[in-house]
Amino acid sequence: MAYMSAPVSTIEEAVQAALATVDDPEIRRPITDLGMVRSATVDGSGAVKVELLLTVAGCPLRDKLRTDITAAVSAVPGVTAVEIDFGVMSPEQRQELQTRLRGGATPEPVIPFAQPGSHTRVYAVASGKGGVGKSSVTVNLAAALAARGLSVGVVDADIYGHSVPRMLGADGRPTRVEDMIMPPQAHGVKVISIGMFTAGNAAVVWRGPMLHRALQQFLADVYWGDLDVLLLDLPRAPATWRSRWPSCCPTPRS
Ligand SMILES: Nc1ncnc2c1ncn2[C@@H]1O[C@H](COP(=O)(O)OP(=O)(O)O)[C@@H](O)[C@H]1O
Ligand SMILES: [Mg+2]
């Protein structure tokens, strides 16, 4: 009587499966999913050769990867030796990895205020000039609305000077709980400032895309709770940045 036998996996398949159990220590996803394994070959004596592409040259986690891959692959029956050749991804391969990450486990951050049905009103305080009272208006409006019993949050996105925390007296540091950032509060206002994330108020050369990223993160990763009002104190904006606004943040409502 004939039985259907389960497909016998080859040693190559077993090696692939073993490699799939190794996560990139930084991205925390299997190296096989990240396109890091360029090739994995097994010769007749059971010696495995893995060509691994690092995301950046001089990757500090290279040793960890070596250890993890060696441990995983050595455990495959029939494997006698493991050799790893490190290479570096080309800019195109890195780009592809980024695209893959966006579409996979790390999608674009979800901004609750931008979701349909959000009750939070978002107001941006912006101007092409500095020193015209943007921050003063923002903090006074925020404190006044909070005094009326509304739940209010302020994002200080002014990269030229983070005056909001000082004006509000919210000079605490945000705390981290799991993946969420808890904003300090003052006068009943929750506040997050770009200045809270730069060491010692160091001057940082912020460029449009970096600000875009930081704002997205402030809006997505900060635990704001159910806000009635979110005020954004924006930097004086060169015209080139203004065009980024629609994609970067929820469209302010009146
Ligand atoms: N309505 C106002 N009348 C007079 N001075 C003001 C007024 N609003 C703000 N200021 C002062 O102007 C300066 C710049 O204000 P600020 O709110 O920091 O402006 P911005 O955020 O636009 O750079 C501060 O010294 C502030 O105290
Ligand atoms: Mg200001």
Distance between the termini: 78 Å
Query: Proportion of β residues?
Result: 15-25%
In the CATH scheme, what's the topology name of the largest domain?
Answer: Rossmann fold
CATH superfamily of the largest domain: P-loop containing nucleotide triphosphate hydrolases
Radius of gyration: 25 Å
If strands are numbered along the chain, what order do they take across the biggest sheet?
Answer: 4-10-5-9-8
The total count of helices amounts to 8
Shape: elongated
Write down the oligomeric state.
single chain
Q: Output the helix-strand order.
A: HEEHEHEHEHEEEEHEHH
Number of strands: 10
Give a structural overview.
This protein has 254 residues and is α/β, with parallel strands linked by helices. It has 2 domains: 11-103, Fe-S cluster assembly (FSCA) (GMP Synthetase, Chain A, domain 3), CATH 3.30.300.130; 112-248, P-loop containing nucleotide triphosphate hydrolases (Rossmann fold), CATH 3.40.50. The protein is 30% helix and 20% strand. The chain is built from 8 helices and 10 strands. The protein has helices spanning 11-19, 62-74, 91-103, 134-147, 164-168, 208-221, 239-242, 245-248, and strands at residues 37-42, 47-54, 81-88, 121-125, 152-156, 175-177, 180-182, 185-186, 189-193, 229-233. It has a 5-stranded mixed beta sheet with strand order 4-10-5-9-8, sandwiched between helices. A 3-stranded mixed beta sheet has the order 1-2-3, covered by helices on one side. The protein starts with 10 loop residues before the first helix and ends in a 6-residue tail after the last helix. The model is unreliable at 1-6 and 245-254 (pLDDT under 50). Bound molecules: adenosine-5'-diphosphate (ADP) and magnesium ion.
